[in-house]
Amino acid sequence: MTGTPASAPPEPVQRLLVPLYAHPGAHPAEWAAVARAAGRVHAVVLNVADGPGDRPDPAFTDAARRLRAAGVRVLGYADTAYGRRPPRAVAADIRRHRRWYRVDGVFLDQVSARAALLPRYRGLVLTARLLGARTTVLNPGTHPDPGYADLADLLVTFEGTWEDHRRLTVPAWTAGHPPERFCHLVHGVPADRAGEVARTAGALGAGVHCAVPGGGPNPWRTAPLGTATTTEAAR
């Protein structure tokens, strides 16, 4: 018996976590591109000066306001120095982000992957929520001890180059969590390979990602591929 072949299931929808580490005054096109892609954006990380800075920056205040008006969640960047930074200093950064930029949540960077530091990060996440952070992202940049997946709303389990991402394997414990709990941040991506990054992340169980063309010390100064014009992406 013949019939109409079943159509292939649709690819899972990939959301973008955007660490846009560029000043809005110097890179307005990149910020505008992210706002235009609001429907695909999970959140944008606001990083004024490896944290909130010493005083409010009006350009970032305006950029955060525009993103929120477009329906984009904004997260304040706070460095944890792999558990070496005092919790009080991290909490101060979260407090300033909330007061100066009205962020919706927090992006804790340079997070330890070690089981021994789980209590410290559990305390940081609790502090962030008590300070009003509705979303908490942890970025160890690799697959940490499985306990970290129970702490945050989103766990960044890969941060690195496109070449390394293509060779990535994931531990079996990740299959016990939904894809929307994991994120891959990929830089040095060729302009025509953004779709490949999204598919690879999805196949590896990560429902959130970011693919940028940049490299060097700060690859996150450009908008993700697929949100910017060719000129913008090449900067």
Instruction: For the record, give the distance between the C-alpha atoms at the N and C termini, rounded to a whole number.
Output: 57 Å
Radius of gyration, taken over Cα atoms and rounded to an integer in Å: 18 Å
**Uncertain regions spanning at least 5 consecutive residues:** 1-6, 229-235
Order of helices and strands: EHEHEHEHEEHEHEH
Kindly name the structural category: alpha/beta
Proportion in helices: 25-40%
Main-sheet strand order equals 1-2-3-4-5-6-7-8
Describe the overall structure.
It contains seven helices and eight strands. The N and C termini lie far apart (57 Å). By secondary structure, it is an alpha/beta fold. The radius of gyration is 18 Å and the shape is globular. It is 29% helix and 19% strand. The longest helix has 15 residues.
Attribute tags:
235 residues; alpha/beta; 7 helices; 29% helix; 19% strand; disordered N terminus
SSE diagram, text form:
Blueprint: E1 15-19, H1 28-36, E2 41-46, H2 58-69, E3 74-79, H3 87-101, E4 105-109, H4 118-130, E5 135-138, E6 154-161, H5 162-166, E7 182-187, H6 194-203, E8 208-211, H7 230-233
Parallel strand pairs: 1-2, 1-8, 2-3, 3-4, 4-5, 5-6, 6-7, 7-8
Structure at a glance:
The chain has 235 residues and is α/β, with parallel strands linked by helices. It is built from seven helices and eight strands, in the order E-H-E-H-E-H-E-H-E-E-H-E-H-E-H.
